[in-house]
Amino acid sequence: MVIDGKTTTIEDIMRQPTTIGNDAILQDVLTKMIVKKTNSLLVLDKDQKLVGIVNAGSVIARVVPDYLEDDTIAARFATEDMFKEEVNKSSNVPVSEFMNAQPNTVKVTSSIMEAAIFALSKKQVRVPVVNDENEVVGLLTRTEFKQMIGHYMGIKESFK
Amino acid sequence: MDYALWASVAVFVATFGLIIAEKLHRTVIAFFGAIMMIIVGLIFGFYSPEKAMHAIDFNTIGLLLGMMTIVAIMETTGAFQYLGILAAKKTKGNPWLLVIALGTVTTLLSLVLDNVTTIILIVPITIVVTRMLKINPTPILMAEALLSDTGGVATLVGDPPNIMIGSAAGFSFNDFLTHSLPVVLVAWFATLVVLKLIYRKEMKQEPQNIDKLMKMDERDAITDMRTLKIVVGVLILVVGLFFVHNILHIEPSLVALIGAAIALILVSPKKDPQKIFEKLELSVLVFFAALFVIVGGLEYSGALDVVAEMLVSGAESNIVMTAVIVLWMSAILSALVDNIPFTVAMIPVIAALQAKGVDVNILWWALVFGVGFGGNGSPIGSTANVIVVSKSEQTDTPITLKDWLRSGTAVMVVTCIIATIAIVTFSDFFNKTTMGQTVSAQYEESDDVTHDNQSEHE
Fold first, then answer.
1. Residue pLDDT, tens place only, B269-279
2. pTM (2 d.p.)
3. B134 to chain A nearest CA, in Å?
4. Which domain holds residue B431?
């Protein structure tokens, strides 16, 4: 398929990701998410290689104690103080402890269909695009796929 | 030299060794070992797929399957959390009364229901309550872990080892109530006394936010009143049938499966019950079946007979002493390693002694108490213990090995001493043929079936 006379690849539609170093703690992660108005960050080591992905869900999961995660009935009775205490306890947790360390990734040469299927996974809706050296070159979110679908349908406002 | 015998022993030792080493998953290695036993058996001519099928105690598997189904339906209704909150409110936040109340709720639930489910559902609400009150949850969590194991010892259906032993020995549900329950009552009381002594510092904590605890409405825990009513009705029916299963001449497994069938048809008549069945621990059932197949191989090869031959003179000359040895040996082993493989291996040994004319009933009870109370001896002694420790990890006071050795191991030793005193003092009572065995024997005679329930695998 073609935009402006060229075949469209992942490279054409991906966006620039927001990243964070793997030495960050939970508070840094949350600060960056809030400042950059994004729900996910790619975690890079000092050589700029991709080592994980964190999203708002991973932050929430780290704050909620494990013993309540499978018991929504008990959680119903937890007080607001308890949530606040858990937040305070979690703020210094290193990102490596709650990031997804094995994210699905695609290459710039991968098929858009494969990337779209990854974007459907419940755990990780954002798909990092990497080169052969595992360096991040872009990011695909559901927005890009939505635009692609719109484009194929001839919705003229897509990819603006 | 009997090659068949040694081949079966080799497969058994290798498989059980690997299970105990815990490097591989127990179900995977047991399944592999069971298949190996059948292949080796075919080669040496002592075992076959048909004999292996016969070796599986389907009474145990069926009982577990039925009870697991009922519990799987019950689990999402909020009944456990309801009871937890109700009990906690009755204590008005007093730390010592909380130990008694939540410990007792756990004991009562474990009498009939699976210990692991009970623990999984009672621990989170316990931590929520103790955090609200700002008290240390450790004594209560320890009470729940220790008393779920202890409560399980009291009934035929309380714990998988009891199901297996009861099935092999021909003990009825009521036999456990007359023989095991009284000992468990004393052990229950002793456990609380030990905990009170060990945690006297924690018991003096001043609970805060008692008003918040009292404002908790246990009815908010109930998610599905209709399902809850059905399951409670089914449980009442099942327990009622357990009391009379022996008189009606039906196996406990059939009782549990009747309950499961009624619960399913009332709760999920049109929907595929896959969601409910996913909660059944298929891995556990396969593990048990595989162990039966492996030990069945030992039995058919004649290896167990050799062991029984070696033990028979000692056992005969002093049966009470033998029982005490069985009790402590099984307690110590159950504290250190998985108690199921040990139980499955011990059952045919005792059955073989019985076949040689030894009165072995006291040995069955010694095994019940040993594997049951022994599980409290270490954090890995039972699945319930493992779960309590792992759930405590994210609290401010994780339960450490040291904590466990201080309280859990003390409780194990005390309860095993109580059981020892019981079987020594009332040795005649424990060695007598039970009501359940008498009733089954009469039934079998009148039915003109020559079926010796101690040698089912023959």
1. 999 999 899 98
2. 0.84
3. 10
4. 3-47+78-155+167-222+281-457
